[in-house]
Specification:
Blueprint (H helix, E strand, L loop, with lengths): L2 E5 L4 H17 L4 E6 L5 H7 L3 E4 L11 H24 L3 E4 L5 H10 L4 E5 L6 H6 L5 E4 L9 E3 L6 H6 L4 H12 L8 E4 L7 H9 L1 H6 L3 E5 L3 H4 L7 E4 L5 H7 L2 E4 L3 H10 L3 E3 L8 H12 L2 E3 L7 H12 L2 H14 L4 H17 L1
Parallel strand pairs: 1-2, 1-4, 2-3, 4-5, 5-6, 6-7, 8-9, 8-11, 9-10, 11-12, 12-13
């Protein structure tokens, strides 16, 4: 029996890959134990127990960016938390630690290093966070979701996909589910679908622009499945062919229904659409370090996606950039092929292989 500690969380971008790996480990050998380490404030506090895994929590320790009283207290709080994780590793007989970044990751990395337990890092973003930059110094294996992510000794393994998304990547699977997926959302099976997403909280720029250009898209003969993140309640619309929802609880069905995706360029959106071969228009979130634009770079370079800067995403841009796509099935098919060429549908298996390699190398 192998005992795994999977550490990290905070956002869906961290928690979903972690759970994908946990599901694969549990499916492979039900006798193995999978323990997740997170914080009480992160998304993992809800999603991990819902998935049937035990969650151990530690304090949330943001890295201080400025000289403040919190910065003075940080080293002492980190030391206490690392001791807590070391006791957990020893008491539970943990054989290997996988970290995916987030607040719980750094203490787990330091604890694994000091307890001499094999350590595996997976970095889902094109620009690594500080926790994974730290952990990569000690890791036995390092996996990255995007080629070119600057971490030492990294292997390009892609993103561990949720089982229901990974199943769609099988040849012919998405097409086979398409009619049922469209029926689920009240869409006629013969109607092409533009899927619009902006993350769980929505994306104001995307939402407002899509609504302003909606009649043009509908007139092109397309239906719009719009996950607005609550925006629907602010501006209620009723149009034939327009299907607004606040959230997409069945992302697999949304992907199965889609002919073209429009949304932000977060890690999950970029790598899931690539793995499934869905052509995309990415509008990167403009705040931050430019990470989302970097996320989309490979798909755009391959010809599978188009990038429109947030400030430039206006109704005019929809008419000039997206409407020509809607009427060009040949180009959409070419984009789908290009997306598939950069997609990695077996990221979960590759991540698990890193864990196995780390355990085997320490055993030798």
């Amino acid at each position: 029996m192998t005992r795994y500690l999977l550490a990290g969380g905070g956002t869906a971008g961290h928690v979903n890959p972690l759970l994908a790996v946990a599901d694969r480990l549990r499916a492979r050998d039900a006798a193995d134990e999978v323990l997740v380490l997170g914080t009480a404030e992160g998304l993992e506090s809800r999603l991990v127990p819902e998935r049937g895994y035990e969650l151990a929590t530690i304090p949330k320790l943001p890295l201080p960016r400025r000289p403040t009283p919190a910065a003075i207290r940080f080293p002492f709080a980190l030391r206490r938390t690392v001791r807590q994780v070391r006791r957990l590793i020893a008491d539970r007989g943990i054989d290997v630690v996988l970290g995916v970044g987030g607040y719980a990751a750094a203490p787990a990395y330091l604890a694994a290093h000091r307890e001499r337990v094999p350590l595996v890092i997976h970095e889902a973003n094109s620009i690594p966070g500080w926790a994974n930059r730290l952990g990569a110094r000690y890791a036995d294996q390092v996996g990255i979701a995007f080629s070119g992510t600057p971490l030492p000794r990294a292997r390009h393994v892609g993103l561990p996909l949720r089982p229901e998304i990974e199943a769609l990547a099988a040849p012919g699977a998405r097409l086979a589910m398409q009619a049922a997926a469209r029926e689920f959302y009240g869409i006629a099976p013969e109607r092409p679908v533009l899927l619009v997403t902006g993350g769980s909280s929505g994306a104001q720029r995307i939402n407002e622009t899509v609504v302003a250009a909606l009649d043009d898209v509908l007139a092109a003969g397309w239906d719009v499945l719009h996950a607005s993140g609550g925006f629907r309640d602010a501006i209620p619309l009723q149009r034939e062919g327009y299907h607004p929802v606040a959230y997409l609880d069945r992302m697999d069905l949304a992907y199965a229904a889609a002919d073209l995706s429009l949304g932000r360029a977060g890690t999950g959106t970029v790598l899931e659409t690539a793995a499934l071969g869905i052509p995309a228009v990415f509008v990167p979130y403009a705040v931050g370090n430019g990470e989302q634009a970097r996320n989309a770079r490979e798909a755009v370079a391959a010809g599978g996606a188009i990038l429109v800067e947030d400030a430039a995403f206006t109704p005019t841009a929809v008419r000039e950039t997206i409407l020509p796509l809607l009427g060009d099935r040949g180009r959409l098919d070419s984009m789908a092929t290009a997306m598939t060429s950069v997609g990695i549908p077996d990221g979960t298996a590759r991540a698990v292989a890193l864990i196995d390699a780390a355990v085997a190398s320490r055993a030798r």
